Amino acid sequence: MALKIRLARGGSKKRPFYSVVIADARAPRDGRFVEKIGSYDPRLPKDSEARVQIDAEKASEWLRKGAQPTERVARFLSQIEVDGKPLVEWKHGNNPNKGEPGKKAKERAEEKAQKAADAAEAAAAAEEAPAAEEAPAEEAASE
């Protein structure tokens, strides 16, 4: 039986309250669970002690038995320290490269930059050419 440490939603509409439970991975979110080990109230301020309350001893016992925490619960467990180290090593889940453009978009940007550089070069060459033509004409007129 694959066990998960996860949140089970309670509370009324627009007033969420979650219980931190040990449940079978196949059980529904708010369905049957093995044991309740804590609670989470997202309406409280982030610095409040009552926002997240988890029994560290029970959590560490279930982790030793092989229960896998969900992403949100892993974040909570990483803030609880037992014997000077966190219960779970949680790493930020976001992909830092997700916002970067793809290969084709980078190629299009390079082509656009190259065209702009070529146009600027051509404009500079066009400005120099009339100046070179005017100089000999002025010399001829003065002679």
UniProtKB/TrEMBL annotation:
Q: Which Pfam families does the entry mention?
A: Ribosomal_S16
Q: Name one GO biological process term.
A: translation
Name the SUPFAM superfamilies on file: Ribosomal protein S16
Q: What are the boundaries of the region Disordered?
A: 87-143
- Gene Ontology CC: cytoplasm; small ribosomal subunit
What the record says about family reads: Belongs to the bacterial ribosomal protein bS16 family.
User: Which PANTHER family does the record associate with it?
Assistant: 30S RIBOSOMAL PROTEIN S16, SMALL RIBOSOMAL SUBUNIT PROTEIN BS16M
The protein's name: Small ribosomal subunit protein bS16
What is the native source organism of this protein? Answer: Hyphomonas atlantica
Q: What is the lineage of its organism?
A: Bacteria, Pseudomonadati, Pseudomonadota, Alphaproteobacteria, Hyphomonadales
